[in-house]
Intradiol ring-cleavage dioxygenases domain-containing protein
Amino acid sequence: MIEDLVCCLVVLFVSVRTVRSQDFVSCFPGAPGCFVLDRVGLASYDPKGPFTCSQRSGACMTTQCVEEGPYYKTNAPIQMIGEGRNGFTPQICPNSVSNDRLIMNGTVRVVDANNPCGRPTRAMLDVWHADPEGNYTDIRPSAGDYKCRTRLITGDSGFYTYSTTMPGRYASPALGPGFRAVHVHVKVTPLDSNNKPIGRTLTLQQYFALDMYMGKNDVCTECRSDDPTLITHLQHSYDIKTFDGVHDILLAAIF
Ligand SMILES: *[C@@H]1O[C@H](CO)[C@@H](O)[C@H](O)[C@H]1NC(C)=O
Ligand SMILES: *[C@@H]1O[C@H](CO)[C@@H](O)[C@H](O)[C@H]1NC(C)=O
C-alpha cells in the first residue's frame, strides 16, 4: 500500500516535471515548445472610458505610460510563465557569457474599487529591447527574426520574470545628438483565465537607476525616463555581471 503510494507520487512528480520542461523551454523561433501563433486575439478588446496612466490611487501611483517607439514588432513568440515562482525564468535575448545579464521580476496588479494599490491579475507582457550592442532586430513582418522579443503570459498571481542580456546604450540620431536611457519596452495587457484581454494595453519602458542618460539627459524627451514608477534599482545578488531587480506594474482600473 505504502509502496503503491510512493510509486504514484513519483509518477506524478515526474509527469509534472515533464510538462513543465515542454512548456517552459527558452523560446526562440523554431525552438520546440515555442508558440509562434498569435493565440491571444488582442484586437478583440473594446476599450471603454478614458485611458489613464500614472494616476494617484490611494497610497499608490499607477504605472506611467511611454510611447512604444519605432522598434515594436507584433506576434513575438509566446512563453507561458504560469505560476513562475517555481524556478522557470524565460529568456528574452539569448544568454551570452560575455555580456552583462539582466534578471527582472515583479507582479502585475490592477486597481479596483476595493484595492487602490491593486490586486494581482493574469497578464500578457510583450517585451522587446536592444541587444548588448544597442541594436534591435529587423521590425519588418517579413523578417522572421524575433531575437530579443517575446510575449510572456503570467498565471493568475500576475507574477512575471525574465532573464536577458543588459540592453546596450544607443544613439537616436532622428531625435538629436545623445543617447537613450537604457530601457526594456513592455506592453502589458490584463487577461482572463482564457487569455482573453480584459483591459487596455499599457505601454511602458523599464528604466534603471544610476543611468546617466535618464530624464533631461535622455535624447527622447517624451520617454519619461525620470518617472519613479518606471525605475528599478538593480542589484547584484548573484554575480557582478548579473543585474537583478523587481518592477511591479500597477494598471489603472479598467472597466
Ligand atoms: C549594430 O549597430 C551598429 C551601428 O548602430 C552597427 O555598426 C553594427 O554592425 C550593428 N551590429 C549588428 C550585429 O547588427
Ligand atoms: C525577484 O527578484 C528579486 C531580486 O532579484 C529576488 O530577490 C527574488 O528572489 C525574485 N523573486 C522570485 C520569486 O524569483
